Amino acid sequence: xxxxxxxxxxxxxxxxxxxxxxxxxxxxxxxxxxxxxxxxxxxxxxxxxxxxxxxxxxxxxxxxxxxxxxxxxxxxxxxxxxxxxxxxxxxxxxxxxxxxxxxxxxxxxxxxxxxxxxxxxxxxxxxxxxxxxxxxxxxxxxxxxxxxxxxxxxxxxxxxxxxxxxxxxxxxxxxxxxxxxxxxxxxxxxxxxxxxxxxxxxxxxxxxxxxxxxxxxxxxxxxxxxxxxxxxxxxxxxxxxxxxxxxxxxxxxxxxxxxxxxxxxxxxxxxxxxxxxxxxxxxxxxxxxxxxxxxxxxxxxxxxxxxxxxxxxxxxxxxxxxxxxxxxxxxxxxxxxxxxxxxxxxxxxxxxxxxxxxxxxxxxxxxxxxxxxxxxxxxxxxxxxxxxxxxxxxxxxxxxxxxxxxxxxxxxxxxxxxxxxxxxxxxxxxxxxxxxxxxxxxxxxxxxxxxxxxxxxxxxxxxxxxxxxxxxxxxxxxxxxxxxxxxxxxxxxxxxxxxxxxxxxxxxxx
Length: 510
Known about the structure:
Elements (H helix, E strand, L loop, with lengths): L2 E5 L2 H12 L4 H15 L9 E7 L5 E6 L16 E6 L4 E6 L9 H12 L4 H14 L1 E2 L2 H9 L1 H4 L5 H4 E2 L2 E5 L5 E2 L2 H13 L2 H4 L2 H10 L7 H5 L4 E3 L2 E5 L2 E5 L6 H12 L12 H21 L11 H14 L5 E9 L4 E9 L5 E2 L4 E2 L30 E4 L5 E5 L5 H16 L3 H6 L3 E4 L2 E5 L4 H10 L3 E4 L10 E5 L5 E4 L7 E5 L1
Parallel strand pairs: 20-21
Antiparallel strand pairs: 1-13, 1-24, 2-3, 2-14, 3-10, 4-5, 6-9, 7-8, 11-12, 12-17, 13-14, 15-16, 17-18, 18-22, 19-20, 22-23
């Protein structure tokens, strides 16, 4: 067995699998998967974004590589920057996003994956970038899911700057359609140069100068922002949950600590009584989600911190649970396990994209300074020179027998509830990986109850009577995240599962 991969696109997963077959390790495979995702999943992955990689090596040493976006060193006057709202129509709802060059934070993914490669990789970076470079040059056939994502965020990818790249070859006035061949020759050239020159090209060289030039006085980014960007290597946040150990992304990111908070509230509750999907099970989950949201509001005024896991605070929230328990973000995830038991769980994001391409690069920068979730104090009020918080939470679950599951999700605020439910499905109900991922999910926030069809009708009826504001999805939906996971059991057997909600694919490499 050479390993297993789960990702959000078949070509992304196949590229990672080929790296494993060629003798690369899990970290090599994740790096190659990212560059390929930039071509195959352009709304979800970009050289202009950021992310996190949770790495566990064959000795069991576990670290989080934080290469998420960073706020600029200086802030331009609000009136001067290019920053504006667009409305995205999701069919059942509309959502406002903020884009423009003034929405771009310092991108970190190129430096971050270079750091991962230097510390943990085996294969030359040129070989890891080569498949993506060839795809960008030769073109990739657009699948229905990627075309659907582009249509969702059409106002961002139909700008004067972006439309020439993302338009259909058959009709340059509309976005790429399913079956169209999408090429990005400028991105191919950038990747070829990165393979030869390394990260300095992006942070000190020609690409850095192009980023600074396009931002100019319309954005906040300067050459110094790029030169001084650093990858942070952190210890993971860990907790014991019913005989399992859960490792995830620590502060300053929010997602991991909120999942840990929820698991600690659930730790002493027997969810199995009455069976999966019964009213008590689902009602308890809704209360956990509500309490987690409340704790975030009440205790994250100065950003995420470990104090949320203080035992006295947890006990206060647990008592409240016992008493009462009678938006589509551009994020993708890759999980890899190799034959030496190395594990990589990587989540990356470009926000929705800022709507502007960096000339000559085929690359769109992020819009993280325009993300409402990441700017709770309001737009244009961010602190300078700070690593931004995120809901992204690449994670590893270790069972009592030493089995390991690597997973993560896209989905903004739904990331934490998707991962919480998958962990609970595995630990509380002993479900296999596929069942744990495909079971119907719920999400509740600001008292709006969202639920996928498939739960018992009496459970849904009771909950929708309690929560007058509710939405029932008639099938599995990408709103509830996309958990792509791989599992290695104590005997060395592997399984993998890509979440069908987000076109996920799993590949076992023999």
